[in-house]
Input
Amino acid sequence: QVQLVESGGGLVQPGGALRLSCVASGFTFSRSMMRWYRQAPGKERELGAGITSTSAGLTNYADSVKGRFTISRDNAKNTLYLQMNSLKPEDTAVYYCNTRASTLINYWGKGTLVTVSS
Output
């Protein structure tokens, strides 16, 4: 079965950095588009970044994280990453790794909590 396991969250001061990881199994990772979503307290889950399955690894970002976050993947390790720099308090959220089998079938990890606070 599909499994997505996130790690790397924690408490960081404003302006700091974190790198999140998501280890995937149960599907052909190298052929799958992958995404990072986040859900802040009291808000809906939103897409943060996505990366295609092609060797080019084309990426897209939400305006709120563009220029600060970088999504990447290591297909040899079945691992997705999110490098987060210049973190702001509004980046505080649970971050989820995501892939889809179809437009109706989403797979999610359990998430990793990122707290940006002084």
Q: What stands out?
A: Residues 40 and 85 are 18 Å apart (CA to CA).
